[in-house]
Specification:
disordered C terminus, 9 strands, about 25% strand, 4 helices, about 220 residues, elongated, 2 domains, Immunoglobulin-like, alpha+beta
């Protein structure tokens, strides 16, 4: 599947075809103006027609081929284009995670870090008080380091447990660090599943004073 910014050769095969066969192409992007009257390059005795397209936006692109002469007719093709990869909000980078692991990070490292950041924001840091900038990121060196390390620790834990960053839906078991308590109900058959909150991440946050108030989640 191509991404935004990729170029791709689109081709049409015409059968039968001979010296009278000719083709033109119209490119229909997901949004915006249609480009018509494009002249593809023929080959194989006018049986194959090709044109290089550069994808400028994600979505479904359509190609309308109009053939005249032998093999005349109209044919449509489609291509689905993915958006360019984008980084979301995260307290740690993949470089931070590599340094934390002292090894190459997994290929889904960015998703793990972003998921860990969302989890910390939405479930763990609700009672924490610290200075932030206009982007909602911490400004204190101590807090920056603590959130970076806790995010890396949590992402590492999730990866080891097979939890994906985009759908970390496991429920909690009880993990207590000082006055902070994370609780979940038992899993199937009464056996607890792995918690989303790692003890190491909680210890890092507690050490920075970010778990100074009771936080309980079920």
């Amino acid at each position: 599947m191509p991404d935004v910014g990729d170029s791709q050769i689109v081709e049409l095969t015409v059968s039968p075809a001979d010296g009278t066969t000719s083709a033109t192409l119209a490119v229909i992007p997901p949004e915006g103006d249609v480009t018509t009257g494009l002249e593809p390059t023929p080959s194989n005795g006018n049986a194959v027609w090709s044109y290089e397209v550069t994808y400028t936006m994600p979505g479904i692109w359509q190609f309308m081929w109009t053939v005249t002469g032998t093999g005349r007719g109209v044919q449509y093709q489609k291509a689905t284009v993915a958006p360019a990869p984008a980084r979301g909000r995260s307290y740690a980078s993949t470089t931070d995670l590599a340094n934390w692991l002292k090894a190459a990070p997994p290929l889904n490292a960015q998703a793990l870090l972003e998921g860990a950041t969302r989890f910390l924001d939405n479930r763990v840091l609700l009672a924490a008080v610290y200075d932030i900038n206009l982007d909602g990121m911490p400004t204190s060196t101590t807090v920056i380091k603590a959130l970076r390390d806790a995010t890396c620790a949590l992402a590492t834990w999730w990866h080891a447990q097979g939890i994906e960053g985009e759908d970390a839906n496991s429920v909690y078991t009880t993990v207590s660090i000082g006055s902070a308590s994370f609780t979940r109900t038992p899993g199937a058959g009464g056996a607890p599943s792995d918690p989303r909150m790692s003890r190491e991440a909680a210890e890092i946050l507690a050490g920075a004073g970010l778990l100074g108030h009771p936080i309980r989640s079920c």
